[in-house]
Recover the amino acids of this structure.
């Protein structure tokens, strides 16, 4: 089993529920703007299985999980986390230092770039500077958040379908029925992502 550090965005918690979650999971509850975030450690054979297990545990306690949130970092956040100067991080990014091991590409180029901490952590481990946790990569966020969305959809759609059955409707100009390009008879009720 591997230990993963996860960040979950959840619906607001009552004081009693927050206390119960912290007691049961040792999670740290923080606010990011108006979002309630749980920073939580989870064990599993892979990051998807670990996230699914902890989400199910939280839901059984009454927590409504919105999403697995990306741990995005800026140059200054990276510098703070590993206790180096922002200038050193800037040099790594530009390839002026540690150029034998290229710095990871940004997750998004907004505001000078933001990186997934998982990518930075892997890079730092190659330099013997990483932390002891594993962190989800970009694909894990997509898989877990897709799994969460499919579960929400299954609860709100009749018979668990996502899109329902496509119907034929007459067009205004001819009055004839037009067949949609894609017909969906039914959709999967849920994903099985954990191995």
């Amino acid at each position: 089993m591997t230990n993963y550090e996860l960040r979950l965005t959840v619906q607001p918690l009552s004081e009693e529920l927050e206390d119960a979650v912290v007691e049961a999971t040792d999670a740290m509850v923080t606010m990011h703007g108006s979002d309630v975030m749980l920073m939580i450690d989870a064990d599993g054979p892979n990051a998807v299985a670990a996230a699914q297990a902890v989400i199910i545990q939280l839901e059984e306690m009454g927590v409504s999980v919105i999403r697995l949130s990306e741990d995005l970092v800026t140059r200054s956040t990276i510098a703070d986390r590993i206790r180096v100067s922002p200038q050193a991080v800037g040099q790594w990014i530009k390839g002026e230092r540690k150029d034998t091991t290229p710095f990871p590409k940004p997750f998004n180029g907004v505001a000078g770039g933001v990186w997934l901490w998982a990518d930075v952590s892997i890079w730092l481990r190659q330099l013997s500077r990483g932390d002891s946790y594993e962190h989800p990569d970009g694909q894990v966020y997509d898989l877990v958040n897709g799994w969460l969305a499919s579960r929400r959809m299954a609860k709100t759609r009749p018979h668990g379908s996502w899109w329902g059955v496509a119907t034929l409707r007459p067009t205004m100009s001819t009055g004839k029925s037009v067949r949609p390009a894609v017909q969906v008879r039914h959709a999967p009720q849920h994903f099985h992502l954990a191995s």
